[in-house]
Amino acid sequence: MSDQIETRLKTLGITLPDLVAPVANYVPWVISGNLVFISGQITVENGELAYVGKLGDSVSTEVGVRAANLCARNLLAQLKAACGGDLNRVSRVVKLGGFVNCTAEFTDQPKVINGASDLMVEVFGDAGRHARAAVGVASLPLGVASLPLGVSVEIDAVFEID
Hints:
Elements: H1 4-12, E1 29-32, E2 35-41, E3 44-45, E4 48-49, H2 61-82, E5 90-101, H3 109-124, E6 131-137, E7 153-161
Parallel strand pairs: 5-6
Antiparallel strand pairs: 1-2, 2-7, 3-4, 5-7
Helix pairs in contact: 2-3
């Protein structure tokens, strides 16, 4: 069995984060046929919440791009679990749904979600090109009750597997 995707991750210097457990009544992923639906992943890194606040207010577009990249790495960690540890089973990134916690005036949601889209293409090549939504929202969940601000970005995804 080839470790093509794992090799690419190492070459890119990408380490997948630990899995984040659901905080409500849902599961992190569902396989239906040859599709894997991954629940929205937020900006958790090393068990801690990162990138909180609103784009267009306390968070810059550049920081939002990094937040989206972290969400994408969390998506890949969940995907790896769904694939029994073998990311080579992924035949296509089908769709990303990006949610950006932002002010009403903020219009760079597509630039922010490029942080996730670019990572998918880096990791999966042409199979990483996908359909997508990049939506601005008034708020996103905290993830941790003790924090006063919601996360900056949340992304869900659909992948096709063999």
